[in-house]
Amino acid sequence: MTSSPGPDPMARRSAGAVLQLVGYGALAAYQDYRAMFTWRSWLGGWVVRLLCQVLFFANLGQLLGSPGQQGYLALGNAVVLGPLGALGVVTSTVGELRSGTLQFLLISRTPPFLALASRGLHWVTDGLLTSTVALLTVHLLLPVPLHWAALPAILGVNLLMTLGVYCLALCLSGAALRKPESRMYLTVATTITLLLVAGVNTPVPRSGVLAGIAAVLPVSHGLAAVRQLALDGTLPATLVLQEALVLAGWAAAGFLLLTHGLRHTVRSGALSLR
Fold it and tell me: What 3-state class would DSSP assign to 239?
């Protein structure tokens, strides 16, 4: 009696092996980020620029003559820096294609999706750090409420939002691999949509097509939860659950679309594996 061969060991990785692969990818991403910034240029250039962006929107609220509106705009634009920062993975994925490193990722034993997704994690870290710095800064400078006891919960919800937009960005990366010149248009369009529809600068639409779009954006529910946490320290479990469900949906879509984009890149002859 002969036993049938078992499944390929590479097809059933343990959780530890997956975490190890993600760790190596994140380490490579960190080295890439070190090549882009030093601590001085990051703090004195990148973070200062983003703070100016947040303060610009806060000043619009001041021009309206409403401290409440000023705080609304300042809080929204400070928190959304995390999710917006995650969109950088679209550019870095196209960069892998143009620099010739995507070929090596595809022929390695690491699943291509896992390799690309982990190599962009520095954008999540950068977004969370800049968002936290901006939130603390506007709280000290402007009439922005911040319930200090709820700060860990705020950071946790912001992590959910940032990971959600990161998964959305992986979807965009799959499209950008087909047409690399579209990466900037996709990123800008997504940024504008988030700023206008997700409750950052104006309340989330309650009806119509825009309301449907807002419901599936990985910022709308989380930002509403952050506003309530900052105001009175109460954790709105329903909003957090909705944000987690949106994250799960975009994670599945990101896997499918990025994988399909990689396959199309190889089959179209745009990428040589020789």
Answer: helix
> Is the pLDDT reported for residue 10 higher than 70?
no
- Show Cβ contacts of residue 191 under 8 Å, excluding neighbours closer than 6 positions: 84, 87
pLDDT tens sequence across 108-154: 677 778 888 888 888 999 999 999 999 999 888 888 888 888 899 99
Q: Could you give the residue ranges of the DSSP H alpha helices within the chain?
A: 15-36, 39-41, 48-63, 67-79, 81-86, 88-99, 102-107, 112-119, 121-141, 151-178, 183-197, 208-216, 220-232, 237-267
Angle between helices 112-119 and 237-267 in degrees, nearest 10:
120
pTM score: 0.87
One-letter amino acid at 121 equals L
